[in-house]
Amino acid sequence: MVEKGVVNARFQIPHLKHIEYVLAAKMRCRKLYIGITNPDPSCVRESVNDEIRSTPAANPLTYLERYEMIRGAMEEFNVPLGDYEIVPFPIHRPEYITQYTPSDGVYYLGICDGWDEEKLKILKGLDLKTEVLWRRSKEECGVTGTWIRSCIATGQEWEHLVPRAVYQYITEHGIEERIRRLFNEER
Q1: Could you list the residue ranges that cross the membrane (predicted)?
Q2: pTM value surpassing 0.70
Q3: Is the dihedral of CA 127, 89, 29, 163 positive or negative?
């Protein structure tokens, strides 16, 4: 077990596969830093490895909303508050990553696509210690935020794809309507 670990994702709807990733990393470290990429619209950048990640419909949630949903999910999964921190993670401005996360931590990644490979290269380029938790095909990776946002926008069932705390937060804060509006604007 290492002292400090770091994970990162957009969490543009924190889902159960995100939680699997976060908990797999938490099992390997005493303190986990959960980095939220694209923390604000000025951080959103295009990538040839994931062209839709920069669109407004792909980024409907604010940093604060994602922070609160992740915190609720961590509580739901009984992770003690002192065992993790939730921080911005400016992956598209890598020179700032260690302003928010420990440079002596282990940066954990799950690799499912070209974008994940790109993130691994970015972190290695900063001479940060990385550990790949798994390499999976897109099919093996399962649910994605894109799929969940699409389910919400088209009126399909999605509650079973996210932690209970996330479902409650989204429905109680009326976020479903924002997701539908942004989805339809991009069509």
Answers
A1: none
A2: yes
A3: negative
